[in-house]
Amino acid sequence: xxxxxxALTVSAASALLLSAPLITACGDAPRPGAAAVxxxxxxxxSQLQTQVKAVRQAQSSDPRxxxxxxxxxxLSQDTLIRMIQFRVIERAGKxxxxxxxxxxxxxxxxxxxxxxGGATAxxxxxxxxxxxxxxxxxxxxxxxxxxALLRKLGTSKVNEVFTQTSKALDIRVNPRxxxxxxxxxxxVLAKEAWLRTSGGTPEQA
Length: 205
Known about the structure:
The chain is mostly helical.
């Protein structure tokens, strides 16, 4: 499920699903207006739409706009999955004494910019995977956290930790985005697995 990386990559995110009518709260479904509920809080549809809008606006000004939009037709689900995964990775990191500082994030981002050919090139790489420029630092921070966990715990243990953390957060996704799978760390409509969706910083070997 996990593969180590030695150079800058921007991982393909999980499958996506466009918007549908809001649901009402019943059974295991999240409360009205929630895209997902986890750890007693929620990711609202409004918060999700704000991130999706930021990506679309950034794509519209790119020379490859049409290609990018065509390749991210289900951006809403992809973005929600990433938002949930980031929270799970962050919690797993804190539970294991890992929380990258702002300075560490900036150093890693600078290194990634150099490897990719500059800040503009790095932004384009992230944008291709549905991450707006304003979300790059968060993606870098999650990659640093993930890679630090991998070094500390090893591959099989990291997968275990993410699954346990996911279960502990009691994640429930609005059915229009699928059903959350704690083992794979994604919605059931998606194909990608856990540690390949958070962005693209260099492996911190």
